[in-house]
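Notes from the pairing session

We agreed to fold both candidates in a single pass and log them together. This is the raw record for the first candidate, unedited. Please don't reformat it; downstream parsing expects exactly this layout.

Candidate A
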Amino acid sequence: MRPMRCHRGVTLIEMVIVIAITAIIATGVAVFISRPFEGYIDAARRAELSDIADTALRRMTRDLRSALPNSIRFTCVPAGCAAGSVYYLEYLQTSGGGRYRAEPDSGGLGNILDFTTTDASFDVVGPMPAFLGGESIVIYNLASSGPVVNSAATRAAAGPDR
């Protein structure tokens, strides 16, 4: 009688079978995982785009709230607003604001702003905004038919000495 040998190791056929079974299982798992993974990537992209759009809208809202009244207008290039035109939103940004004195105070004092003549000085109710130079001051910019801020009657240069 022969003594029994203990075989250690695997044969080539066993290895090929294990690789084939592993490939089949991996393919099945990949099919089930790929769709949710693609959905996650798509949702992340949509969230990023939504965040970018929200940030842009918030910036536009902030800028338009601080725009000079009646200075907001739309223009298009080329003129005529044909198909393929580029639209622009234009406005004048404000750095401060105040209220001018329209009537003398109860004691009859106060330098009121007179619109009937050229008025070089007037009192401001509350603190006067600081001017650094190269800025303009706009007074009584009200109109029902579009921007009037470029009118000489409502806009003038302002500086630290004015």
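Candidate B (folded immediately after A)
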Amino acid sequence: MELRDLELVDFRSYEQVAVALEPGVSVFVGPNGQGKTNLVEAVGYVANHASHRVASDTPLIRSGADRAVVRATVVRDDRDTLVELEIVPGRSNRARLNRSPLPRARDALGVLTAVVFAPEDLALVKGDPAERRRFLDELLVARAPRMAGVRQDYERVLKQRNALLKSAGAAIRSRAAPGEVPATLDVWDAHLAAAGSLLLEARLDLVADLAPLVAKAYAELAPDSGPVTLAYKSSIDAAADELPHGAEALALALRDAMTRVRRQELDRGISLVGPHRDDLGLELGGLPAKGYASHGEAWSYALSLRLAGHDLLASDGTEPVLVLDDVFAELDTQRRAQLAARASRADQVLVTAAVTEDVPALLTGARFAVSFGRVERAS
């Protein structure tokens, strides 16, 4: 896979810019605040339909504009595909493939596969469980775009069930004596368990595939530290290796867990069991990485998660574009060299840096100067 052309219209700081790319390494150099990260953010957006920097799409639209457009030409198996995403505030995004409109924007997922590592990824180790769930789910969708529909179905059911829990709980508390739980809650329990079991099963399989690749990547980046291990932590209150196998069995386990916590759910008005409450446990040297890892160790751990994701997607048959956003300045000499050696083996790598000196000499290739909304190929 190769990202050959990237064009932005009213995206972030760019009124309009077009960049011609090529295989190998491309380095974007410029002072902070000039738009380097905006470029690679757009690459990640085409791949994931989400920004790695903000939760909402609104900040992606240039101030004063009413929409933003990202176009990318992707080459796979010697065939060119033009994917266009239109971002409009308050409305569903629109997508085109080779100029033809798609019924849903998510139908364009999978055209471009990219793995983006950025400073924000430190939250994978030090942040809340939501950061790690998002990491897993984005990787799931990159491996199998149909999982985007599974995620949306689960989120829709979860929203409906939470609304019912909130109204039912309020109704019960308003009576002198406890009332009956609405029979419709059993129906939504079944819906949530069915949708959640598909997502949970996929996550468990993903973590099993990912764990050895993370350990390998960390050992290469930081051979004097570690070892690292991952473990899926389910809200079913069972270790990952104790969970049943198969979506049907997982759905039954989810329903049993919901039954056990129903009173607490009604009291709080939220669903306390399901993939939305799960976490990915990260350990370093047998201790939780969150709270025990140093800044350098946490940085290397987060980077190892992304590199392992890249290796996993490549093993599935299509090597993704690797994006390293302002990474090397944070690494010591040894880890910088190790990362450069790994990155140099990738088919296509996009690197951003404030100064050329931050980029290891091993990463030779195209150089672009980024300044005041202009991107120019260096001679």
